[in-house]
UniProtKB/TrEMBL annotation:
InterPro entries, alphabetized: AAA+_ATPase, AAA_lid_NorR, Homeodomain-like_sf, HTH_Fis, P-loop_NTPase, Sig_transdc_resp-reg_PrpR_N, Sigma_54_int, Sigma_54_int_dom_ATP-bd_1
Signal peptide residues on this chain, from the entry's feature table: none
SUPFAM superfamilies reported in the protein's UniProt record: Homeodomain-like, P-loop containing nucleoside triphosphate hydrolases, PrpR receptor domain-like
Source organism (scientific name): Alicyclobacillus cycloheptanicus
Keywords: ATP-binding, Nucleotide-binding, Transcription, Transcription regulation
Domain Sigma-54 factor interaction residues, every copy: 314-546
Protein name: Transcriptional regulator with PAS, ATPase and Fis domain
Pfam families assigned: AAA_lid_14, HTH_8, PrpR_N, Sigma54_activat
CDD domains in UniProt: AAA
Keyword Transcription regulation: yes
Superkingdom to which the source organism belongs: Bacteria
Amino acid sequence: MEIVLVAPYQRMVRDAQEICRMYGERIKIVHGCMDDGVQLGKRAVENGAGVIISRGGTWVRLSEAVSAPVVEIAVTPYDVLRALQRARGMGRKFGVAGFSNVIASMREWVSMLNVPVVPIEIDDDTEQTRNTVLQAIERERVDCLLGDTTILEYSVDFGVPCVLIESGKEAIWEAIQEAKRLVAARMVERKRHASLHTALDRVHQGILVADREVVQFANRTVLQLIGRDACAGLSIRDCLPPALYEFLENSSGRDSEILQLGAKLWFVERYPLLDDGRFFITLHLVDDIETIERRVRQRRAGTGHVARYTFDDLVGQSPAMRFVISRATQFAQADSSVLIVGETGTGKEMLAQSIHNASSRAQGPFVGVNCAALPEQLLESELFGYEEGAFTGAKRGGKPGLFELAHGGTLFLDEIGETSLHVQQRLLRVLQERQVMRIGGERLISVDVRVVAATNQPLWRFVQEGKFRKDLFFRLDVLRLNTIPLRERREDIPDLTEHMLYQLWYQRKGVGVRPRLDPAIFPLLQAYDWPGNVRELQSMLDYLLATQVQGKIGVEAIEEWVEQKALPPVAGTVDSATSSEGAFRSKLEPYDAPDAKQSVALAQLPGRTMEEIERWAIEQTLAETSGDMTRAAQMLGISRTTLWRKMKQWQTETMA
């Protein structure tokens, strides 16, 4: 890194050269004053100079004009005194003219001189400065001027003798040493920056720093993404993809978004550096984030169990659903046992996990077991663990039970009604004593576990029939939650359908175009009883994703699913005389059921086939609408095309 000394006068060039020869310094020395010196300094910086040295007005101008540091050769009191010594005999009153850096230091000691000296401060070498010096000469009746090369030029026109204030060799030497210290510091800084840039270029994440609309730095990942070799100094509008630029333009403060950039999804975060418009962004590949998430889950799963769901995952704005979520949120703040009661597919485990994640035990494990899925002996060993040699096939060293694994967290017992009386007795003991003994063991192990149980069985009836222990029932049934069947919160079906369709599509990595839902299907979905609840709705959407390739799920697709897959209504929800027609009625009737006259007439058709009931319903509706097929299709909850196709089919059969 080169050091360049810009000397305003020729004598300084000779003095600097002599110093360099004497001390073996390798410094480039050029001669140039004011504008000429500024041009020489700019050229030197462009060619790689790290530090510039100069003095007086040339130093002031260079400091403003170049990006590299500029070291000043200070004008010392000794330099002024030497100039005064040389000016003896040229007058009785002397004017010392110079820039603020010279005059400021001189004001402190000028009063100590016996010789009258007038400080004259100048700012530049313009005509106005020239007039300022002339006015000071006339006002103060100065006999002789002392100053730099600019004042020396003025004095010729003013007719006043002038002595050049020359910098001594010691001041030049001090400036050279300061320049060398700056060069050493800049070399260390440059090396540090090079290491930092290398590190930033090697990370997989994209990093970009900008000052308002101008890019200051972009690492290799960003450059590869935008297809450039460099973009520092360019406008972000000119070099960034439109989606990324729009995100930055519409963001303020810290913000984040998932953007499609090229062929991949990126998670982009914006961070403000200061309040002056500077900021930086990071770009993470969504695939990389998913990989990290899987590794974290695998690591955590190796030491415990994880609850995936929170209350945010429970979709539904119906009053019934809002009440359940509100009550579950309250239960999360307690530490008592919870019993969740509800039909299959109503989200009992999601509620249990949400309660865990909203509780003070959220950092602990969430351990779940389906009591109906394991035989009695295996369930007992899973729950309470066993010691080595407890039974044939026991693992060497024994095995901790689920109560031990759930220590500090939550144990979820699904289908608790399916447990045997023997297992129930041991469960009661653990819940009472907060201690567990492994099978074949002799010592009690203290456990701190919150139990959340779930069932779709009538537990109290089981208690009355002697199938479930009464004392265990009351131990579990401290805080009870009753889940809501989907047929009792039909207004949630549109939001649930949209949410679950997006989840299923995303699980397939978004292959193809995401299907759209025709709003006309929602009345049909709301009319169906959903015996399998949310789980059945999810199965339907999975089926439709596999069979529909047009990119839109409409009424015809729902009708096909109803005909192929729909189940009879849940027992007790439809009159037994009409239960055989329930699934088909769900297909025809929107959520707001048809008038009572049509419902009664339909109920008076026992023994008819499905096709006969369907034909009768369509004929009745067409009669009510005076043959208006559009209105009839709307009342029936099917498309006009489907209605026309069925009528065409019946007409063909009649003609045959």
